[in-house]
Write a structure and sequence with these properties.
The chain has 221 residues and is α+β, with helices and mostly antiparallel strands. It is 26% helix and 12% strand. The chain has 2 domains: 1-30, no CATH class; 53-216, 2-Layer Sandwich (Muramoyl-pentapeptide Carboxypeptidase, domain 2).
């Protein structure tokens, strides 16, 4: 039988091995890369600042000078179309389709998607829409301001699963990412934080008209 001194000696060796954490004894796990909430450095994609309001939007991106085209749909001028370009799918992390957008928005969108992949590696959006000349909320009233989609600076992510709704009509619905929110949006919080970190405004944070699929490179106010 072991004496008290032998037992203490064995116990001392055991504790020492715990403290030094020898690789052969305890598995060493790396510090997780995705710290929550995600923290990213400021991003500078070429704009002096993200425009606020409609006047700054035109000053920053230009006037699309819309006219009525085929099937009574809006179309932008040829001059403004020179500000648009297709970003290949190979440049967009976690996405398999190309996207047509404003060239000034491209660096921000690509970086936002990169950060989204970093925060939520399992997230794979099915459909991202951008350029679509129309008025806000699909209005046919010529007095309604143009949508940011007309400028190619707004992105709708999986709109079918993240439909817009009115807070006034549904005041009982939860705030973003609170209990029950996933019934109305399947976009992870990490994705939203990734887009906001580079300057996008998310429609899910609007007060009255809640638009969880909408991300725009313009601040409402």
């Amino acid at each position: 039988m072991w004496g008290l001194g032998s037992f203490i000696g064995v116990l001392r060796d055991f504790v020492k091995r715990l403290l030094v954490a020898e690789p052969s004894f305890i598995e060493i796990r790396p510090i997780p890369k995705n710290v929550w909430p995600p923290k990213w450095p400021p991003f500078h994609g070429g704009l002096e600042r993200i425009p606020v309001g409609l006047a700054e939007r035109d000053a920053c991106y230009g006037d699309p000078k819309v006219s009525i085209g085929a099937s009574n749909r809006l179309k932008v001028s040829r001059e403004y179309a020179r500000n648009l370009a297709t970003v290949a799918a190979s440049r967009i992390p976690n996405y398999h389709r190309r996207v047509y957008m404003a060239t000034k928005a491209a660096p921000y969108f690509i970086e936002a998607m990169r950060r989204a992949q970093e925060a939520c590696p399992d997230w794979t959006p099915k459909r991202i829409g951008c350029f679509n000349p129309r008025r806000m909320r699909h209005s046919s009233d010529p007095r309604t301001p143009l949508s940011d989609h007309t400028y190619g600076i707004a992105f709708d992510i999986d709109s079918g699963q993240n439909r817009a709704w009115s807070r006034k009509k549904h005041p009982e619905r939860p705030q973003p990412f609170k209990e029950g929110w996933d019934e109305f949006s399947d976009i992870p919080e990490g994705v939203v934080l990734a887009f906001e970190s580079v300057g996008f405004e998310w429609g899910g944070r609007w007060k009255s008209y809640i638009d969880p699929h909408h991300f725009s490179l313009r601040k409402v106010k």
